[in-house]
Sequence to fold (289 residues):
Amino acid sequence: MDTTDILKKVRQIEIKTRGLSQNIFAGQYHTAFKGRGMAFSEVREYQYGDDVRDIDWNVTARFHHPYVKVFEEERELTVMLLVDVSGSLNFGTMVQTKRDMATEIAATLAFSAIQNNDKIGVVFFSDKVEKYIPPKKGRKHILYIIREMLNFKPESNRTNVAQAVEFLTRVMKRRCTAFLLSDFFVRESFEDPLTICNRKHDVVAIQIYDRRAKELPDVGLMKVYDAETGHEMIIDTSSRKLRRAHTAYWLRRQDELRQVFSKSRVDYVSIATHEDYVKKMLLLFQMRA
Fold:
């Protein structure tokens, strides 16, 4: 994709996703993700009914009278997008690739964030952290992020989600809201790092998949290619047994994934590339409201 094509695509994505964030997601996003953090504001004298855990013992000792800390809702969030850029995201048999959809969803979340005066940053990951863009505000910053998502060439094709969440836990000192976008075609377990990360931050997982991962069409012999390992093989999709085994494997993997998110206490949503991601994202926001 040359520079002209990239700029044209960036503009198309901006027009679509900024409209969505302004007209559809703005209020829902605010409700779902605001008020999660509390910042210290001031101290005042203790009043009957105050929580004793809020007593400021230093001020109390100084004035020989109990004082409590007053907290107020943080008006500003830091939002981090953890975007899978491994080889499997380039797959797509329907309207668009998984990477195309991930870019649109990430852009929509980014524009929703700046609507609320939040900072936005990105971690591109494969089986390692490929690139870190520190959080900043503003439209110019978001357009840079979208441009990077469209044109970024990872060094590795493989995936390791644990590496990404461990990096986030390490690099972000203050609590943030993090959206983890991936197809979660992973071999290594990431439950423990995700659990630790979600204790420090507010992590939301967004699974993006192609429906052919769930069900194979009956089209006879088909060559399949693993974008992460480079392995190729011929399969016979006319075999009902093979198609059933393929679907059973998908359902088993999805059940394992659900358990990981449940144990980690991470909210998540699964979106197929042929589905309307707006509806699915709104359901996620409403669930968290």
